[in-house]
Amino acid sequence: MREIAVVISDFYLPRGGDRPSTAGVGALPGLEEAARFAQRSALDGGWRAWLARWMDRDDLARAAPATVAAAASSQAGARGAVWIANPIHLIAGLTNLHLDYRGLLRLPEQDLARLAQDFTGTFGEEEFQLEPLESGPFLLRSSRSLNVLTTEPSRVLAHELESSLPHGPDAPVLKRLGAELEMWLHSHPVNEARIRRGELPVSTLWPWGGGDALLPQNAEARRGVPPLPQSADARRGAAAPHRASSAPSNDLIAFGSDPYLLGLSRLSGLTLRALPESLPDPADYPPAQRVVLVAELTVPLRANPGWTMFEALAHLDRCFILPAMEALRAGAVSSVLVIANDIRLQVGRRDRLRFWRRRPKSGSAALRVVME
User: Fold this and answer.
1) Taking the CB of the first residue and of the last residue of the chain, which one, N or C, has fewer CB atoms within 10 A?
2) Contact of 232 with 148, CB cutoff 8 Å
3) Do 251 and 208 have their domain in common?
4) Are 134 and 191 contained in the same domain?
């Protein structure tokens, strides 16, 4: 196998002077080894744009996350604007609200379907529609394009909630919808059932990653669908256009449940596989030359209520990063990529010959490599 890529999709921390303390972080042996030998680079467009290019889909790298996710929805091809809408639970502090990792909720299929149905009955279909996605959150559709900048909820964890609210000329439209959603969800039967089960209720739905429902022109040309101009979310941070390349062949395997990853896989003709409990043995997939695993900190945190974020990271390190580095050491793969906090660490076989590089003395020291 040529390459293994491990993406921690929801790991974002402030950089520079505002970065949080890493005191008490346990061992991160996989990340420590990667940090010692890796070639480090920043991903200005985030992991999703990088992944599209890594999967040989340069034509999709400029598309908004919601635009790509919409390609896997039941209404693929519909016009208008779309956002990914994540159910979140907000915690009330003394002076304001805030969001933590456990507030990034994953609802069961029946709750998603009930909320989508009741949304239509309450708000109608003239301006907005709510559609459950196979990968867990919702797709929020608008009948018109809106000039609004939004923030991914995982990134809100590293910033003030107020500064992460929608902004831009049409931001009042989404803010007004958000306020209406809070009132609607406050005593909704789905939330009442969640509280009875000891689960966190849904405070609101957080829209992000917005763009036009149809794909950019070069991607749409491959499907025969005429394009629409990109929205503000799609234009923000857009790179120079890239020439579309052929769709990936069966030498590529993808694991995960992220809505963008699902849409990207569908558009590329790949079957997205569920994330395994640990890194698969490369020998189990002899035709594959590249494997990508998109993991989330929120999954082990939901399963282990007493864990901290750093304990969840240590779990993902044991399950995926350390086995990938061991496979590199054994010669089973040629290269390992670790992506977190908009940083890429790439380690090849020759990089491990830099034996003079000191190994980070702790998980805390290794973590600083993806925080600076």
Assistant:
1) C
2) yes
3) no
4) yes
Span 203-217, pLDDT tens digits: 999 999 998 888 765
Residue 94 lies in a domain: yes
What is the per-residue pLDDT across 345-357, written as a single tens digit (0 to 9) for each? 999 988 766 665 6
Between CA 334 and CA 4 the distance in angstroms is 8
* SS3 state of residue 142: strand
SS3 262: helix
Asked whether 155 and 342 are in contact (CB, 8 A), the reply is: no
Q: How far is CA 364 from CA 40, 311, 318, 345, 369, in A?
A: 17, 12, 16, 16, 9
Give how many domains the chain has, as a whole number: 2
Q: How far apart are CA 229 and CA 338, in angstroms?
A: 34
Kindly list the distances between the CA atom of residue 90 and the CA atoms of 149, 206, 240, 273, in Å, as whole numbers in the listed order. Answer: 21, 11, 37, 31
* Same domain (yes/no): 143, 104: yes
Rg (CA), the chain: 21
* pTM, full prediction: 0.86
Give pLDDT tens digits for 118-140.
999 999 888 899 999 987 899 99
Domain encompassing residue 144: 68-212
CA distance 230 to 220: 13
Contact 99, 88 (CB under 8 A): yes
Q: Which residue, 212, 229, 264, sits at the end of a domain?
A: 212
Per-residue confidence (pLDDT) for residue 232, from 0 to 100: 39
